User: What shape does this take?
Amino acid sequence: MRILVLGGDGYLGWPTAMYFSKLGHEVFIVDNLSKRYWEAQHGVSPLMSIPSLQKRVRIWQEVTEKEIKFFIGDTTNHRFIYGAIERAMPDAIIHYAEQPSAPYSMYNREHAVFTQVNNIVGTLNVLFAMKKYVPNAHLIKLGTMGVYGTPNIDIEEGFIEIKHKGRKDVLPFPKRAGSFYHLTKVHDSNNIEFACKVLELGATDLHQGPVYGIDTDETILHSNLVTSFHYDEIFGTVLNRFCVEAAIGVPLTVYGKGSQTRGYLNICDTLQCVRIAVENPAVLGEYRVMNQFTEVFSVMQLAEIVKTAGEKMGLKVDIRNISNPRVEKEEHYYNPKNEKFLKLGLQPHKLSDVLLDSMLKRIIEAKENIDTSIILPSIKWKHKVI
Assistant: This one.
């Protein structure tokens, strides 16, 4: 197949591009390299140094004799994305090309507006470009489990059957986003569902939980193929942050009570899920949602798991509750469904001491790169409007 990975320079995008290339597909990348700018803007950087996209692609070809082609440009520029899609003529488009951070979107008015415009306009441009050049292609769009919030009912996969005053219907599951970033995913879902109906496109909306992990089968082939593992307050996810804190001997920073519960998955399972979606495409006119996570943990449960794994390795690991910078329920019901991927053959990598050991060892090897000043949260959901 011809596969176009939008946002192919990112934490998930780069491993996805290599994964499909290794499987024998013809892979194209689109990226405007803005994640590198946002990192510089806020003084944060990945744990391991990341080569330029040009170098990454060159090293991949040297190691595997497989070519990944790329286009440098912005999805919010409709002329650019029209041209990229016309040249690539993909069978499947895997769309990661959005500002991916909730804290970034809550930094101030400028960041909130940028996140909304960047994410929503970029996705709209992709939809219209698909209709013009590849109307039979399958869109796999990365969303987030965060669109659901924490309702006091079971979370279904995108849709729920409602009975009301003697009538019933299947409707989109109610959305209660937790940040301006999460709201962009809500708007994306509405736009994609509408586009599938009126433009007769086929799309899979992946509502993904927080991802953890450093290595995939492809990133370990060469030191310059590593992906951008973040541990900072803006782009780092909670388990990645805990592992870094454990490795350098500082307390694991639990926001609030730590009862906040979410669905998590390993980066290798992200690749599995996307492959399953590509190989089992939505039909034209169909908009479907698949919840993408493998296990459910509270923040405090994650901290205890990291503490146990770290102590088995001889690390001294403490846990410290700190003030929660976010506006969120800290005690709540949480029971999301994830049956669709399991029925299609997903074989999850369960979080375990063995998995954590490998993460911790990799982090310890690179701990001279760790900047402790970027770990603690400084961006607060409630702040003076500027």
Q: What stands out?
A: The domain at 2-374 is CATH 3.40.50.720 (Rossmann fold). The first strand starts at residue 2 and ends at 6. The first helix runs from residue 13 to 22.
